[in-house]
Amino acid sequence: EKGGFPSFMDKEIHDQPQAVADTLLGRMDPSGRLVLDEMRIDESLLKSIDKIIVIACGTAAYAGQVAKYAIEHWCRIPVEVELAHEFRYRDPIVTEKTLVVAISQSGETMDTIMAVRHARQQGAKVIAICNTFGSTIPRESDAALYTHAGPEIAVASTKAFLSQIVACYLLGLYLAQLRGNKFQDEIRMILGELQQIPAKIQRILDETAQQVTDLAIAQKDTESVLFLGRHVGYPVAMEGALKLKELAYIHAEGFAAGELKHGPIALIDEGKLVFIVVPSKRGRDSLHAKVVSNIQEVRARGARTVVIAEEGDEEVRAYASDVIYVPASPTLMAPLLTTVPLQIFAMELATVKGLDVDQPRNLAKSVTVE
Ligand code: M6R
Protein backbone atom coordinates (compact mmCIF):
# COMPACT_ATOMS: atom_id res chain seq x y z
CA GLU A 1 0.00 0.00 0.00
CA LYS A 2 3.02 2.25 0.22
CA GLY A 3 3.14 2.15 -3.57
CA GLY A 4 6.78 1.08 -3.56
CA PHE A 5 7.89 3.94 -1.32
CA PRO A 6 9.81 3.22 1.89
CA SER A 7 7.21 4.98 4.03
CA PHE A 8 3.66 6.27 3.87
CA MET A 9 4.99 9.77 4.33
CA ASP A 10 7.22 9.41 1.29
CA LYS A 11 4.27 8.12 -0.71
CA GLU A 12 2.02 10.92 0.51
CA ILE A 13 4.59 13.57 -0.39
CA HIS A 14 4.59 12.07 -3.88
CA ASP A 15 0.78 11.99 -3.91
CA GLN A 16 0.69 15.77 -3.65
CA PRO A 17 0.33 16.66 -7.34
CA GLN A 18 -2.69 14.34 -7.48
CA ALA A 19 -4.09 15.59 -4.16
CA VAL A 20 -4.05 19.19 -5.38
CA ALA A 21 -5.51 18.24 -8.77
CA ASP A 22 -8.27 16.17 -7.18
CA THR A 23 -9.19 18.95 -4.76
CA LEU A 24 -9.66 21.28 -7.73
CA LEU A 25 -11.53 18.74 -9.82
CA GLY A 26 -15.15 19.35 -10.77
CA ARG A 27 -15.43 22.68 -9.05
CA MET A 28 -15.82 24.84 -12.11
CA ASP A 29 -18.59 24.90 -14.68
CA PRO A 30 -17.78 25.16 -18.40
CA SER A 31 -18.04 28.95 -18.26
CA GLY A 32 -15.30 29.07 -15.63
CA ARG A 33 -17.66 29.82 -12.75
CA LEU A 34 -16.79 28.24 -9.47
CA VAL A 35 -19.46 25.82 -8.32
CA LEU A 36 -19.23 24.47 -4.81
CA ASP A 37 -22.17 22.10 -4.64
CA GLU A 38 -21.47 21.23 -1.04
CA MET A 39 -21.87 24.81 0.08
CA ARG A 40 -25.31 24.40 1.55
CA ILE A 41 -25.39 27.71 3.33
CA ASP A 42 -27.87 30.31 2.23
CA GLU A 43 -26.21 32.58 -0.33
CA SER A 44 -27.72 35.73 1.15
CA LEU A 45 -26.18 34.80 4.47
CA LEU A 46 -22.77 34.23 2.89
CA LYS A 47 -23.08 37.63 1.26
CA SER A 48 -23.71 39.29 4.58
CA ILE A 49 -20.88 37.85 6.66
CA ASP A 50 -18.57 40.45 8.12
CA LYS A 51 -15.87 38.26 9.61
CA ILE A 52 -14.30 34.85 9.11
CA ILE A 53 -12.70 32.90 11.93
CA VAL A 54 -10.61 29.90 11.00
CA ILE A 55 -10.23 27.32 13.75
CA ALA A 56 -7.84 24.40 13.53
CA CYS A 57 -4.82 22.80 15.16
CA GLY A 58 -1.26 22.06 14.11
CA THR A 59 -0.63 21.90 10.40
CA ALA A 60 -4.29 22.58 9.59
CA ALA A 61 -3.96 25.89 11.46
CA TYR A 62 -0.95 26.81 9.31
CA ALA A 63 -3.09 26.15 6.22
CA GLY A 64 -5.56 28.62 7.71
CA GLN A 65 -2.81 31.17 8.22
CA VAL A 66 -1.80 30.90 4.57
CA ALA A 67 -5.44 31.24 3.52
CA LYS A 68 -5.90 34.41 5.57
CA TYR A 69 -3.65 36.32 3.16
CA ALA A 70 -5.59 35.12 0.13
CA ILE A 71 -9.11 35.48 1.49
CA GLU A 72 -8.54 38.97 2.87
CA HIS A 73 -6.95 40.02 -0.39
CA TRP A 74 -9.70 38.59 -2.59
CA CYS A 75 -12.78 39.19 -0.45
CA ARG A 76 -11.92 42.14 1.77
CA ILE A 77 -13.38 40.31 4.76
CA PRO A 78 -11.32 40.24 7.96
CA VAL A 79 -10.03 36.75 8.69
CA GLU A 80 -8.84 35.64 12.12
CA VAL A 81 -7.02 32.36 12.50
CA GLU A 82 -7.08 30.79 15.89
CA LEU A 83 -5.96 27.53 17.40
CA ALA A 84 -9.16 25.66 18.22
CA HIS A 85 -8.16 25.01 21.83
CA GLU A 86 -7.49 28.71 22.42
CA PHE A 87 -10.65 29.90 20.69
CA ARG A 88 -12.83 27.89 23.00
CA TYR A 89 -11.46 29.15 26.24
CA ARG A 90 -11.70 32.84 25.63
CA ASP A 91 -14.76 34.88 24.96
CA PRO A 92 -14.59 35.23 21.16
CA ILE A 93 -16.79 37.75 19.40
CA VAL A 94 -19.00 35.54 17.28
CA THR A 95 -22.29 36.65 15.78
CA GLU A 96 -24.71 35.42 13.10
CA LYS A 97 -22.57 37.35 10.65
CA THR A 98 -19.45 35.39 11.52
CA LEU A 99 -18.43 32.55 9.26
CA VAL A 100 -16.36 29.96 11.07
CA VAL A 101 -14.15 27.71 8.96
CA ALA A 102 -12.99 24.57 10.76
CA ILE A 103 -10.05 22.86 9.05
CA SER A 104 -9.22 19.27 9.91
CA GLN A 105 -7.72 16.38 8.00
CA SER A 106 -9.24 13.70 10.21
CA GLY A 107 -12.43 15.47 11.18
CA GLU A 108 -11.99 13.90 14.62
CA THR A 109 -9.67 16.33 16.41
CA MET A 110 -11.39 16.88 19.73
CA ASP A 111 -10.08 20.42 20.23
CA THR A 112 -11.56 21.42 16.87
CA ILE A 113 -14.84 19.58 17.48
CA MET A 114 -15.31 21.46 20.75
CA ALA A 115 -14.54 24.78 19.06
CA VAL A 116 -17.11 24.03 16.32
CA ARG A 117 -19.74 23.36 18.96
CA HIS A 118 -18.81 26.53 20.80
CA ALA A 119 -19.11 28.61 17.62
CA ARG A 120 -22.46 27.14 16.61
CA GLN A 121 -23.90 27.69 20.08
CA GLN A 122 -23.23 31.35 19.53
CA GLY A 123 -25.07 31.45 16.24
CA ALA A 124 -22.16 31.29 13.79
CA LYS A 125 -22.37 29.25 10.61
CA VAL A 126 -19.60 26.70 10.35
CA ILE A 127 -18.01 25.34 7.19
CA ALA A 128 -15.76 22.32 7.62
CA ILE A 129 -12.77 21.83 5.37
CA CYS A 130 -12.05 18.18 5.87
CA ASN A 131 -10.38 15.18 4.26
CA THR A 132 -12.43 12.43 5.88
CA PHE A 133 -15.89 11.91 4.52
CA GLY A 134 -18.60 11.55 7.13
CA SER A 135 -16.35 12.32 10.10
CA THR A 136 -17.53 14.28 13.14
CA ILE A 137 -16.48 17.80 12.17
CA PRO A 138 -18.27 17.91 8.79
CA ARG A 139 -21.26 16.15 10.34
CA GLU A 140 -21.53 18.79 13.03
CA SER A 141 -21.00 21.72 10.65
CA ASP A 142 -23.50 23.61 8.50
CA ALA A 143 -21.60 22.74 5.34
CA ALA A 144 -18.51 20.80 4.31
CA LEU A 145 -15.97 21.40 1.64
CA TYR A 146 -13.96 18.21 1.23
CA THR A 147 -10.31 18.08 0.35
CA HIS A 148 -9.76 15.13 -1.93
CA ALA A 149 -6.26 14.23 -0.82
CA GLY A 150 -7.06 10.55 -0.29
CA PRO A 151 -6.28 8.75 2.98
CA GLU A 152 -3.35 10.22 4.86
CA ILE A 153 -1.72 7.53 6.99
CA ALA A 154 1.58 9.04 8.13
CA VAL A 155 1.22 11.00 11.37
CA ALA A 156 2.94 14.01 9.84
CA SER A 157 0.53 15.81 7.59
CA THR A 158 1.73 16.56 4.05
CA LYS A 159 -0.77 16.19 1.22
CA ALA A 160 -3.64 17.19 3.51
CA PHE A 161 -1.90 20.51 4.15
CA LEU A 162 -1.60 21.41 0.48
CA SER A 163 -5.19 20.32 -0.17
CA GLN A 164 -6.41 22.40 2.75
CA ILE A 165 -4.78 25.49 1.30
CA VAL A 166 -6.40 24.74 -2.08
CA ALA A 167 -9.84 24.20 -0.49
CA CYS A 168 -9.53 27.46 1.48
CA TYR A 169 -8.61 29.25 -1.74
CA LEU A 170 -11.68 27.79 -3.46
CA LEU A 171 -13.79 29.02 -0.58
CA GLY A 172 -12.21 32.48 -0.79
CA LEU A 173 -12.79 32.68 -4.54
CA TYR A 174 -16.34 31.43 -4.13
CA LEU A 175 -17.07 34.17 -1.60
CA ALA A 176 -15.45 36.75 -3.87
CA GLN A 177 -17.59 35.52 -6.78
CA LEU A 178 -20.74 35.57 -4.68
CA ARG A 179 -20.10 38.98 -3.24
CA GLY A 180 -18.95 40.44 -6.52
CA ASN A 181 -15.51 41.37 -5.15
CA LYS A 182 -13.77 39.98 -8.18
CA PHE A 183 -14.55 39.84 -11.86
CA GLN A 184 -15.22 36.44 -13.30
CA ASP A 185 -12.21 36.53 -15.59
CA GLU A 186 -9.94 37.30 -12.64
CA ILE A 187 -11.32 34.32 -10.78
CA ARG A 188 -10.83 32.18 -13.85
CA MET A 189 -7.24 33.36 -14.09
CA ILE A 190 -6.51 32.48 -10.45
CA LEU A 191 -8.10 29.06 -10.92
CA GLY A 192 -5.91 28.63 -13.99
CA GLU A 193 -2.85 29.35 -11.87
CA LEU A 194 -3.97 26.80 -9.29
CA GLN A 195 -4.36 24.26 -12.06
CA GLN A 196 -0.71 24.64 -12.95
CA ILE A 197 0.42 23.77 -9.42
CA PRO A 198 0.35 19.93 -9.66
CA ALA A 199 2.87 19.90 -12.54
CA LYS A 200 5.08 22.33 -10.63
CA ILE A 201 5.04 20.14 -7.50
CA GLN A 202 5.92 17.19 -9.73
CA ARG A 203 8.95 19.08 -10.99
CA ILE A 204 10.14 19.65 -7.42
CA LEU A 205 9.75 15.93 -6.71
CA ASP A 206 11.60 14.99 -9.89
CA GLU A 207 14.30 17.61 -10.00
CA THR A 208 14.94 18.94 -6.51
CA ALA A 209 14.26 16.13 -4.03
CA GLN A 210 17.75 14.66 -4.38
CA GLN A 211 19.44 17.96 -3.54
CA VAL A 212 17.29 18.26 -0.42
CA THR A 213 18.02 14.66 0.57
CA ASP A 214 21.76 15.25 0.26
CA LEU A 215 21.44 18.33 2.42
CA ALA A 216 19.51 16.41 5.08
CA ILE A 217 22.15 13.68 5.15
CA ALA A 218 24.90 16.26 5.52
CA GLN A 219 23.01 17.91 8.39
CA LYS A 220 22.16 14.78 10.32
CA ASP A 221 23.89 15.92 13.50
CA THR A 222 22.25 19.32 13.58
CA GLU A 223 20.67 20.11 16.92
CA SER A 224 18.63 23.16 16.09
CA VAL A 225 17.19 24.64 12.91
CA LEU A 226 15.47 27.96 12.33
CA PHE A 227 12.99 28.76 9.57
CA LEU A 228 12.24 32.30 8.44
CA GLY A 229 9.54 33.63 6.16
CA ARG A 230 7.41 36.68 5.50
CA HIS A 231 3.83 37.05 4.30
CA VAL A 232 2.62 33.57 3.18
CA GLY A 233 6.18 32.34 3.73
CA TYR A 234 5.74 32.83 7.47
CA PRO A 235 3.23 29.99 8.02
CA VAL A 236 5.33 27.89 5.63
CA ALA A 237 8.33 28.49 7.92
CA MET A 238 6.31 27.35 10.92
CA GLU A 239 5.13 24.26 9.05
CA GLY A 240 8.74 23.42 8.12
CA ALA A 241 9.73 23.70 11.78
CA LEU A 242 6.81 21.56 12.95
CA LYS A 243 7.71 18.80 10.48
CA LEU A 244 11.27 18.74 11.77
CA LYS A 245 10.21 18.61 15.43
CA GLU A 246 7.71 15.84 14.79
CA LEU A 247 9.92 13.64 12.68
CA ALA A 248 13.53 14.26 13.64
CA TYR A 249 13.04 15.30 17.28
CA ILE A 250 15.27 18.29 16.97
CA HIS A 251 14.69 21.81 18.10
CA ALA A 252 13.19 23.85 15.30
CA GLU A 253 11.42 27.18 15.22
CA GLY A 254 9.66 29.16 12.55
CA PHE A 255 9.75 32.94 12.73
CA ALA A 256 8.38 35.86 10.82
CA ALA A 257 11.60 37.16 9.27
CA GLY A 258 10.81 40.71 10.37
CA GLU A 259 10.80 39.56 13.97
CA LEU A 260 14.47 38.52 13.87
CA LYS A 261 15.85 41.80 15.13
CA HIS A 262 13.31 41.82 17.96
CA GLY A 263 14.97 38.88 19.63
CA PRO A 264 15.52 35.65 17.72
CA ILE A 265 18.66 36.92 16.00
CA ALA A 266 20.43 36.33 19.31
CA LEU A 267 20.12 32.61 18.56
CA ILE A 268 22.31 32.88 15.48
CA ASP A 269 25.85 31.66 15.86
CA GLU A 270 28.51 30.05 13.70
CA GLY A 271 27.10 27.23 11.60
CA LYS A 272 23.47 27.58 12.76
CA LEU A 273 21.23 26.11 10.08
CA VAL A 274 18.64 28.64 8.92
CA PHE A 275 16.07 28.06 6.17
CA ILE A 276 14.71 31.19 4.55
CA VAL A 277 11.59 31.10 2.40
CA VAL A 278 11.98 33.87 -0.16
CA PRO A 279 8.96 35.39 -1.94
CA SER A 280 8.87 35.96 -5.66
CA LYS A 281 10.45 39.16 -6.86
CA ARG A 282 7.77 39.83 -9.43
CA GLY A 283 5.04 42.08 -8.17
CA ARG A 284 6.33 42.31 -4.62
CA ASP A 285 9.76 43.73 -4.96
CA SER A 286 9.89 45.31 -1.52
CA LEU A 287 8.92 42.06 0.18
CA HIS A 288 11.66 40.25 -1.69
CA ALA A 289 14.23 42.91 -0.81
CA LYS A 290 13.32 42.71 2.88
CA VAL A 291 13.80 38.96 2.98
CA VAL A 292 17.11 39.22 1.12
CA SER A 293 18.34 41.63 3.78
CA ASN A 294 17.22 39.16 6.47
CA ILE A 295 19.35 36.49 4.79
CA GLN A 296 22.30 38.87 4.86
CA GLU A 297 21.76 39.58 8.56
CA VAL A 298 21.90 35.95 9.60
CA ARG A 299 24.67 35.11 7.18
CA ALA A 300 26.82 37.93 8.58
CA ARG A 301 26.53 36.24 11.97
CA GLY A 302 27.80 32.92 10.70
CA ALA A 303 24.57 31.09 9.88
CA ARG A 304 24.46 28.42 7.23
CA THR A 305 21.68 29.75 5.02
CA VAL A 306 19.45 27.45 3.02
CA VAL A 307 17.37 29.61 0.75
CA ILE A 308 14.14 28.44 -0.87
CA ALA A 309 13.62 30.75 -3.82
CA GLU A 310 11.92 31.01 -7.16
CA GLU A 311 13.77 29.79 -10.25
CA GLY A 312 15.57 32.67 -11.88
CA ASP A 313 16.16 34.52 -8.61
CA GLU A 314 19.90 35.02 -8.92
CA GLU A 315 20.07 37.73 -6.31
CA VAL A 316 19.80 35.31 -3.38
CA ARG A 317 22.83 33.30 -4.46
CA ALA A 318 25.34 35.73 -2.99
CA TYR A 319 24.05 35.16 0.53
CA ALA A 320 23.05 31.53 0.35
CA SER A 321 25.05 28.52 1.43
CA ASP A 322 22.52 26.49 -0.55
CA VAL A 323 19.71 27.56 -2.85
CA ILE A 324 16.73 25.31 -3.40
CA TYR A 325 14.83 26.55 -6.41
CA VAL A 326 11.11 25.99 -6.90
CA PRO A 327 9.14 26.80 -10.08
CA ALA A 328 7.89 30.36 -10.44
CA SER A 329 4.34 31.07 -9.29
CA PRO A 330 2.29 34.01 -8.07
CA THR A 331 2.97 34.94 -4.42
CA LEU A 332 -0.23 33.43 -3.04
CA MET A 333 0.43 30.10 -4.78
CA ALA A 334 4.01 29.80 -3.57
CA PRO A 335 3.24 27.93 -0.31
CA LEU A 336 1.98 25.00 -2.40
CA LEU A 337 5.54 24.72 -3.71
CA THR A 338 7.90 26.04 -1.04
CA THR A 339 6.50 23.65 1.59
CA VAL A 340 7.52 20.58 -0.39
CA PRO A 341 11.33 20.80 0.07
CA LEU A 342 10.78 21.39 3.80
CA GLN A 343 8.69 18.22 4.07
CA ILE A 344 11.37 16.26 2.24
CA PHE A 345 14.13 17.71 4.42
CA ALA A 346 12.37 16.66 7.64
CA MET A 347 11.58 13.19 6.31
CA GLU A 348 15.11 12.56 5.06
CA LEU A 349 16.74 13.86 8.23
CA ALA A 350 14.56 11.53 10.30
CA THR A 351 15.37 8.68 7.94
CA VAL A 352 19.13 9.16 8.15
CA LYS A 353 18.79 9.23 11.94
CA GLY A 354 17.07 5.84 11.72
CA LEU A 355 13.74 7.12 13.05
CA ASP A 356 10.26 5.92 12.17
CA VAL A 357 8.92 8.65 9.92
CA ASP A 358 5.37 7.33 9.80
CA GLN A 359 4.91 6.88 13.52
CA PRO A 360 6.96 9.44 15.41
CA ARG A 361 7.19 8.98 19.16
CA ASN A 362 4.47 10.41 21.41
CA LEU A 363 2.14 11.31 18.53
CA ALA A 364 -1.14 9.95 17.20
CA LYS A 365 -2.63 10.53 13.78
CA SER A 366 -5.79 11.97 15.19
CA VAL A 367 -5.86 13.63 18.55
CA THR A 368 -9.22 12.62 19.92
CA VAL A 369 -8.67 13.93 23.44
CA GLU A 370 -8.66 17.55 24.55
O1 M6R B 1 -6.77 15.90 11.76
P1 M6R B 1 -6.46 17.35 11.98
O2 M6R B 1 -6.17 18.06 10.71
O3 M6R B 1 -7.55 18.05 12.76
O4 M6R B 1 -5.17 17.36 12.86
C1 M6R B 1 -4.64 18.57 13.34
C2 M6R B 1 -3.24 18.36 13.89
O5 M6R B 1 -3.28 17.45 14.97
C3 M6R B 1 -2.27 17.84 12.84
O6 M6R B 1 -2.19 18.70 11.74
C4 M6R B 1 -0.86 17.66 13.42
O7 M6R B 1 -0.32 18.89 13.75
C5 M6R B 1 0.03 16.88 12.45
N1 M6R B 1 0.71 15.82 13.15
C6 M6R B 1 1.03 17.74 11.76
O8 M6R B 1 1.92 17.04 10.96
TrEMBL record:
The active site is at K365 (for fru-6p isomerization activity). Its main location: cytoplasm. It catalyses: D-fructose 6-phosphate + L-glutamine = D-glucosamine 6-phosphate + L-glutamate. Its EC number is 2.6.1.16. Residues 41-181, 213-360 form the SIS domain. It is an enzyme of class 2 (transferase). Keywords: Aminotransferase, Cytoplasm, Glutamine amidotransferase, Repeat, Transferase. It is found in: Cytoplasm. Catalyzes the first step in hexosamine metabolism, converting fructose-6P into glucosamine-6P using glutamine as a nitrogen source. Homodimer. This is Glutamine--fructose-6-phosphate aminotransferase [isomerizing]. It comes from Brevibacterium samyangense.
